[in-house]
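Lay summary

Proteins are chains of building blocks that fold into shapes. Our project writes down both the chain and a compact code for its shape. Here are two examples, one after the other.
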Amino acid sequence: MTNDHGPSLLGPDSPYSDVSIYVDAVAAPRVVARLRDALGLEDNGPELTVGPLHVTGEPNDYATGRHAHPSDFLQWPTGLECEAHAGTPDEVVQAVTALACSLSTVGSGFD
């Protein structure tokens, strides 16, 4: 659905809204820490900044336990909430790509 989100809370004039990335790992802080290490970022607490992308790890409010197929991403317990507060479309795409690629390299052994 287009235009289903309002403007970014981090930058009211930003044309970007948000994206959620679901991760099959229980501890959101561990996911964020491992991504921080994989991306070579400095520690800034429970959040990441990847280029123009602001990322926080949160419990997946949509998860209802393991009542669906194990590969149903809505059952994965952690959500990475991502918001672009600035940057060109190319910079945002590069940041999301770096985040997704890092998830694929650190994905095993979260729990």
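And here is the second example, written the same way.
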Amino acid sequence: MPSYQLRDTATRQLIAHSLADYAAAEAALDRLDDELEHDLAANGEGAGRIRLRLDVEKVTDGTTEAVGHHVLLLGVDDHTDPLPAL
């Protein structure tokens, strides 16, 4: 039975493994995003400080296959566009 894992694209470091399915991988991404946002806020970091790209990989019988990519933009506040409308 396949499992899923998350890997940092830049460093190739494994972030999470043995996830039951793709939905579990997405839930792990959401938790990671929340944890990192909390850490940024606790350290007084400003908007747009971290851009993290993660691969979602499917592991079947020891073979790893990339099945998705997610980019987390951490510390970015959703606010109104500072440019005036034309």
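What can we say about the second shape? The beta strands are 3-8, 14-19, 50-60, 63-74.
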